[in-house]
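If your schedule permits, I should be very grateful for your opinion on a structural question. Kindly check, if you would, that the fold set down in the tokens agrees with what the sequence suggests. Thank you for your consideration; the sequence and its tokens are set out here:
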Amino acid sequence: MRLMPIFFLLVVAPAAWAQQSRPANAPEQGPPSLSRSSFSARELHNERVLTDFFVGDFADIPSSFDREKVFFMALFRQYLEAYGRQCDAFLPANKVELTRTVCAREQYSVNRFGQRVGMSSCVEYRTEGIGVYADPTLNAAISKLGNDQQGSLLKDSVLKMGDQNAVNDLQQLPDDMNALLRRNACASPGLKRFQENLVLFSMGKPPIPLSGVAPAATSPLAPFKDQNYMRLLEDLIAEQGKTWMLNRFVRGSTSDVVVSRDAAGRPSKIVAKYLFNPVPGRPDRSQGSVAVDFSDGAPSRSLLEWGLPTVGAGNRPAGWRARGESRESAPAQSTESACS
């Protein structure tokens, strides 16, 4: 399963796709008579998080939904799409169309027989409307968040690539947002307060708390929680291995994982060994090594590659470098074609 495209299509790209427009006037604050019964996220997968946004309890929102993380960006984007589909009649007159990025021209390699090999990479993009509209104020907020946090979002995407639970949670968000709009009327004060706090959270500003509900005190940072680094490295090597002409990665062969940590206990560098078959169809195996540098607990993008085959940065996950691969036959040639 190619995880990076999933994160890119659902999270990172929509931030860059937001159409620039003149924002509408900021929405007025909801009426003071709001209560917990004014909003319902009951039995949804992310019930707690959605309710915290409504009541304005930002301190209780899990760190996985921090504004620089892919989960929050995905939640925000999926809410815009769900509201646009189900509540278009309630959008302002100056509503804007949401867009998406598609590949206009791709680049790939061909061998000496003219056969396409390895992975392709997009070298030119274009945007197109998706036929769904949004409030320009909310659209401008998610656009600014994506531009401001682009680097952090990419690093967080890479960090979660080896976590299948994170991928499953991400794919659950569209269903949650559609169900949220079925449980709350489009023009309800509770839903209005929810989206007001979404915007405030995206801007790093204090929430509008629900009257009579005191926000929880800010708790100290929780200890860093390690993920399954063996699985992360396996997925990274397997993904990179798709670009190799002859070598074939041996799944399950990653071993001797060593984690170096920074002063805060977060990983600063991870090294490991793995096996690969130099010649397809033969039992011979050779050993390679992989090193992934981390910054602030997330893989860094500023790394060099070791050994052959040499692969451009556009064809590998951020923070990746590998060595130990055997020499390949005559190098493949690069070509480009328009995407259909």
